[in-house]
Design a protein that fits this description.
The complex is a heterodimer. Chain A has 6 helices and 28 strands. Chain A is mainly beta. Chain A has a single domain (about 1-425), classed as YVTN repeat-like/Quinoprotein amine dehydrogenase (Methylamine Dehydrogenase, Chain H, 7 Propeller), CATH 2.130.10. The longest helix of chain A is centred in the last third of the chain and has 19 residues, at about 390-410. Chain B is α/β, with parallel strands linked by helices. Chain B has a single domain (about 5-10, about 35-255), classed as Vaccinia Virus protein VP39 (Rossmann fold, 3-Layer(aba) Sandwich). Helix content of chain B is about 30%, strand content about 15%. Chain B is built from 9 helices and 7 strands; from the N terminus they run αβαβαβαβαβαβαααβ. Chain B has helices spanning about 50-55, 85-95, 110-125, 140-145, 175-185, 200-210, 220-225, 225-235, 235-245; strands at about 75-80, 100-105, 130-135, 150-160, 185-195, 215, 250-255. Chain B is globular. Classes of the chains: A mainly beta, B alpha/beta. Chain A: Belongs to the WD repeat TRM82 family.
């Protein structure tokens, strides 16, 4: 009985770390970084840090932001997280036009392709929907409460994306599942029709990404705690190909990292044409590039762009207009750090398109800080500090803690046979007759 | 842990073949937590369900897996969710001898009992009861891992746990959320049968099904002639108990329909 108590205390007492996130405006107008409760936006057209204003009447983020997402047209940005708030920002004025309060912590957020609805998933696996329909002033009627449209039974939703044609909404969870749901014309009545389940991951699914439409069809990529990236025909729920990233990383990772049983995929970002996928992997200092063949329906390992030893990206983003791959590293709740000092590191890979491979041998694959658009101004705005390199050790320890925290949240507890028997014996409502 | 989710997986093993197991050796808690993480093996996808373990007569071991028979390979068509001691399966088996059916049960001892019961019935009635089996699983979490889209023609939810407290309503096996998944694994025209002796739960299950756009009520005249309906209240141990005590039952029988876009 004793160690049961210990174990439970361990779980609830563990500090929860949230990875730093990055999102790029689809037209390249701006880039947003979320770390802890902070949302930092840099205006790439005006070349200045954005100061956000909030006239929605709601409170501002007070706990880790877990998800940020631009609408397809770039007019809106949604942010949501552990403080149970979902905030909708207008990207022209960077005003918060709406603050929605969730009953539970929010783990994923997405805006429908037509920009009319925002969906968010709570930590119990329920997906909620709110209408963003607005009158002339961009104001929304007050009685517009979230409605639940479907759910994954008692699971944590890790990622939620709309298909490029807006017909489907895909949700990934910690129970190895990806559900593809028909997004109906009137979603306020719920989304009961399941198009498919994409089943094949043998651990939690951490991220999903749709390729853009090409020739009328698109594909879904997913990454998971089982160190795989998978390619799906999501209409039929068919697994087309699996790429085991672990073997590819094995040679490159630090020697002390190889003891990891699994290298979880942290994020996937696709080029606009969907032919190239950038993959962030826990413990990999760099980004892995995979080719995505839409004709043969195959994934192929291309190369790893290695970064400095301590730089392990937690999130990736790119916009369809510019060929920049934004990578960010960091986490909330840094130990021994004041809240005002939430450090992140931003690095940019230029020419994020298919010919990246051809040219990369001749020129550096990663922009130096001086080569970054708007240079120090941008870095100061998004990183919070310029001399992050001096903080490498802090960042490294944060990432280690983040990994443990993710693992605790998403990986199923595995009790040994003896432990299970022991727990059973501790039960006082069963008579043993053996 | 080895996979023991097939009916041939053995179990208590103390009784001779053909002899029915005795329930007193398989006592279990009446309730099990559907929210807890499961430690028993779950098939990654429906392709991994080991049918040959469950229905050896339909999937003889000597037949090659990548064989030619794949086209005609039968699939599980009925699912009894929360099958308990398996009374319904045993009742259904002779009525639909060509349909594969599976009971899904969360409590390990009860699952063991049903396994033994099926093996004993097969041994004492050669050629019968080959179409029923049981699997230990949490059907509230893993239905899509067992069945493909539109695979099932009947689903049964007999005397499920009522979970009276409002905070536990999300543990009920019929809910708007879970009906999405049941609708997914059921073919259009398939029928979902629910019955309970708890009026409150009966109203709940009926209202969930009525609200759900992928189900419609089966008309009374059809219910009257459906040979399955009589079994709902008579075949299971729970049903017999209710009948013994002269209790009332509440059933809701609905058909899977395709979505009507207005």
């Amino acid at each position: 009985m004793e160690d049961v108590v210990v174990e439970e205390a361990e779980v609830s007492g563990a500090a929860e770390f949230a990875p730093a996130l990055v999102a790029a405006h689809p037209l390249g107008h701006s880039v947003a970084v979320a770390v802890g409760p902070e949302l930092r936006v840099f205006d790439l057209k005006g070349g200045c840090a954005v100061s956000m204003s909030d006239d929605s009447g709601g409170s501002s983020h007070s706990d880790a932001i877990r998800a940020i997402s631009f609408s397809a047209d770039g007019i809106l940005l949604a942010s949501a997280g552990d403080d149970k708030l979902v905030k909708i920002w207008k990207t022209d004025s960077w005003r918060c036009i709406r603050t929605i309060t969730s009953e539970k912590r929010v783990s994923a957020v997405a805006i429908s392709k037509d920009g009319l609805y925002v969906t968010f998933a709570d930590k119990f696996g329920v997906i909620w929907l709110v209408t963003l329909g607005e009158d002339g002033e961009g104001q929304v009627s007050a009685d517009n409460k979230p409605v639940s449209i479907f759910g994954h039974y008692c699971s944590i939703i890790t990622s939620m994306k709309f298909s490029p044609d807006g017909r489907f909404i895909a949700t990934a969870d910690r129970d190895f599942k990806i559900r593809v749901t028909v997004f109906p014309k009137n979603p306020l009545k719920g989304a009961p029709e399941i198009q498919s389940f994409c089943l094949g991951h043998t651990e939690f699914v951490s991220c999903i990404a749709f390729t853009h439409l090409s020739g009328g069809s698109s594909f879904l990529l997913s990454g998971g705690g089982d160190s795989t990236v998978r390619l799906w025909d999501y209409i039929n729920g068919c697994l087309l190909d699996t790429c085991h990233v672990k073997g590819k990383v094995g040679e490159l990772a630090e020697p002390n990292e190889t003891e990891d049983s699994n290298l979880a995929v942290a994020d996937i970002c696709l080029t606009n044409d969907g032919l190239l996928a950038a993959v962030a992997i826990q413990s990999l200092n760099g980004v892995m590039l995979l080719g995505c063949d839409h004709v043969d329906k195959k994934l192929s390992f291309l190369k790893v762009i290695t970064m400095e030893n301590s730089y392990i990206p937690t999130s990736l983003a790119s916009s369809s207009s510019a060929d920049l791959l934004w990578t960010v590293m960091g986490a909330s709740n840094m130990p021994n750090q004041a809240a005002s000092q939430l450090l992140t590191r931003v690095r940019i890979i230029p020419r994020f398109k298919k010919d990246l491979l051809a040219s990369s041998d001749h020129s550096p694959a990663i922009l130096e800080d001086s080569e970054v658009p708007y240079g120090e101004k941008l870095l100061l705005a998004l990183q919070g500090s310029l001399d992050i390199s001096k903080q490498e050790e802090v960042l490294a320890s944060v990432l280690a803690a983040l990994k443990v925290s993710m693992h605790k949240m998403l990986v199923k507890k595995n009790y040994s046979e003896e432990r299970r028997e022991q727990r059973k014996r501790g039960r006082n409502d069963k008579k043993i007759k053996k | 842990m080895t996979r023991t989710n097939g009916a041939s997986g053995g179990g208590g093993g103390q009784q001779a073949a053909g002899k029915l197991p005795r329930k007193r050796f398989y006592r279990a808690r009446a309730h099990s937590n559907p929210l807890s993480d499961s430690h028993f093996p779950i098939p990654i996808s429906p392709d991994d369900v080991e049918l040959s373990q469950h229905y050896p007569r339909y999937f003889p071991a000597d037949k090659d897996e990548h064989g030619d028979g794949e086209v005609a390979a039968p699939r599980i068509r009925f699912a009894d969710v929360g099958c308990g001691f398996g009374g319904l399966l045993v009742g259904l088996s002779p009525i639909f001898p060509d349909k594969l059916m599976i009971g899904m049960e969360l409590r390990d001892k009860v699952t063991e009992y049903v396994k033994e019961r099926v093996l004993a019935l097969r041994a004492s009635n050669p050629g019968q009861y080959d179409n029923i089996s049981v699997v230990r699983t949490n059907s509230m979490k893993y239905i899509p891992n067992y069945f493909r889209k539109a695979q099932l023609s009947k689903m049964f939810f007999l005397f499920p746990d009522p979970h009276f407290k409002e905070k536990n309503h999300r543990r009920r096996v019929i809910s708007m959320q879970l009906l999405d998944e049941y609708a997914y694994v059921m073919e259009v025209g398939g029928i979902i049968y629910t019955i309970t002796d708890v009026e409150e739960l009966g109203i709940w299950m009926r209202s969930c099904l009525e609200k759900h756009s992928l189900f419609e009520a089966v008309p009374d005249e059809e219910i009257k002639v459906d040979p399955v309906v009589k079994l709902l209240s008579t075949a299971t141990e729970e049903g017999q108990k209710v009948a013994r005590n002269g209790g009332q039952t509440f059933q809701a029988i609905f058909r899977r329909i395709s979505l009507q876009e207005e």
